[in-house]
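User: Can you model how CU-O-CU linkage sits in this protein?
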Amino acid sequence: VLASRDRLLELDLTAAPTQIRVGGRDASLYAFNGSLPGPTLRVAPGDTIRVRMRNQLQDPTNLHVHGLHVSPEGNSDNPFVSIAPGESFDYAFDLPADHPAGTYWYHPHHHGNAADQVAAGLYGAIIVEDPEPIPVARERVMVVSDLTLDTSGNLPGATSMQQMMGREGDMVLVNGQLRPQITASPGERERWRIVNACPSRYLRLQMEGQQFRVFSRDLGRLPVPEETTEVVIAPGNRVELLIETTEGSSALITTPVNRGGMMGGMSGNRSDNGSGNDGAIELLTLEVSGDPAPTQEAVPGGPALRDLRGEPVAGRHTLDFAMGMGGAMGGGGTTMGGGGSAQNDSMAFTINDRKFDAERVDTSVRAGKVEEWTLVNSSPMDHPVHLHVWPMQIVQDGDRDLTEPRWQDVVNVPARSRVKVLIAFDDFPGKTVYHCHILDHEDQGMMGTVNAR
Ligand code: C2O
Ligand code: CU
Ligand code: CU
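Assistant: Here's the modeled complex, given as structure tokens:
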């Protein structure tokens, strides 16, 4: 058992405009500490992390530790903090001693700037170490992002169409690299910690020629790794894969996910990219050759997952994610700027008919209790719904009841469908947010506040 406050980790993170080579071109991006992605934070349950975050951008920013179960207030993971250009802010995150291991990430979360800042390169991985070693030959952290560069290497601003659909970049990068090549020997087991840091792109990951098992989704680990041929992760989701290597060359690809659209025929996917077959995009190549590695021990089963079904439910809420034409849905039905200066006054992104207001409390919950939330999507487009601090157990997806406990912190709610989740509001009172993790939607108002007390 780890004692609380085992270690103190200190880190300076500077968000600044940075010149970086991307896909053989000079790009003007934003980066943490000059690198794409930013530094990987490795921590253990019980640790305290102190981060001095400096803002050298032209716009306000802040820092969010996505998926970590830490206090939502004060100098911790507070989505309402605003760090002005030129200023800095001292964060302190105390991880509980029983914090789930897994792959998490960090990114800015300043309302109105999140999509632009993440798209420009501000993201990094957080690893919460396992209590016991997992027998693998090596592990790799893979932060997947996408971006578009114009001919001078700058990021073009998102068009209103891209803001409506959620922007997808032309280049899909792994750790800032375009189609990197990695190598292994036959018979090795690798653990891949994959973060979907794209502002809007869903990834359907596939790899032929290699055995591929899901080890973790978002947090913790599965009791038994699941063998599969593909895995879909929405923006914000993470997945850990176990790969048992076989001689040969294999590509990790992503193929399009139909996430709906506004007008018939328009989809959120691009197919003008990569190899061109069915819109498949190659993320990386794995070359397996050489002498076979000695056989590795089997991966031990994970602990049984908590199952909130059977625990008393103290409250029920319905959140309705909607997109409306006309821009009249924000703030009680007033129309927005008659002069047409705002780019997006043709579209409103709302939850229960309201746009985000940091001052309002949208959902009150009792700290320490379990609640059932029904996430309704009445729009023609999928929305990946994310709640800070407290993970969600998915119990019903459309009409399908889940039989095994399944935990995630980003839950995709398909167009014109609904997902029921159970949430245990353990440990921390305080106010934080839930939102669509298509960051363009979040910035346009598809975010609400929750207060646990
Ligand atoms: Cu990764 Cu509130 O977001
Ligand atoms: Cu988050
Ligand atoms: Cu959305």
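A couple of observations from the model: DSSP finds three helices and 32 strands in the chain. The domain at 8-128 is CATH 2.60.40.420 (Immunoglobulin-like).
User: Helpful, thanks.
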